[in-house]
Amino acid sequence: MMNAIFKRRSVRDFLPAPVEKEKIERILRAAFEAPSAHNRRPWEFLVVTGKEKKEAIAGMSPWAKMCPSAAAVIACCADLKKGDPGYETGGDPEDALWEQDLAASVENALLQITEEGLGGVWLGWYPGKARVNAFSEYFHLPAHIVPVALIALGYPAKESSPRDRYDPQKVHWESWEP
Ligand SMILES: Cc1cc2nc3c(=O)[nH]c(=O)nc-3n(C[C@H](O)[C@H](O)[C@H](O)COP(=O)(O)O)c2cc1C
User: Which atom of ligand 1 lies closest to the CA of 163?
Assistant: First the structure.
């Protein structure tokens, strides 16, 4: 059975067509449904469709060159005031699980992108200092908001082929030794 998990592939080539706002909203709804440590849900999303802004983002990372051709770029950001107990309040920094929270929301969004017949690619942003700073400055993010990952998305220019990456050698039942 091919559900969205098995259909999803990174898509970096897009048709020059906009994506309907309702689709973007459903993608965001999926992101909001991700599991989150202590149910903190420390995510915030910045949706960018403007040509100039997408070009600026492409200039911030050598691995973000597809952004201008994407219909939209969604920046998935963490609110450290919500996601990091150690931020400002002196709580336990070992309980700062916002990177994992955000990763879960990014994957949820990518799966919904697949469901919508769209394609997208995950662009790792944090912890690259230069690209995080460039993005935060350009979009005037408050100090407690961290751009963790960006998603470039749009209508795919070509179909992706299915694959099977299951590797039983990487699965350890009960103990590490075979
Ligand atoms: C944390 C993370 C960061 C990534 N950063 C980038 C990136 O900056 N640019 C890019 O083109 N792809 C990026 N990718 C996508 C990977 O290259 C892609 O997932 C991988 O090659 C596997 O291909 P698939 O997504 O089609 O299964 C990233 C993926 C993850 C999970």
Answer: 27
Residue 147, both tokens: 């751009």
pLDDT digits 0-9 by tens, 95-148: 999 999 999 999 999 999 999 999 999 999 999 999 999 999 999 999 999 999
Considering the domain delimited by 8-158, tell me its CATH architecture.
Answer: 3-Layer(aba) Sandwich (3.40)
State the distance from the centre of ligand 1 to the C-alpha of 28, rounded, in angstroms.
19
* 43-48/145-154 β-pairing: unpaired
Q: Is 121 in the pocket of ligand 1 (CB under 6 A)?
A: yes
Pocket probe mutation, ligand 1, options 8, 12, 113, 121, max atoms within 8 Å of Cβ: 121
Domain boundaries, the chain: 8-158
Among 33, 59, 32, CA closest to 131: 59
**Cα dihedral 162, 109, 141, 43 sign:** negative
Taken in order 76, 81, 83, 88, is the CA torsion positive or negative? Answer: positive
pTM above 0.90, yes or no: yes
Cβ(9) – ligand 1 distance below 6 Å: yes
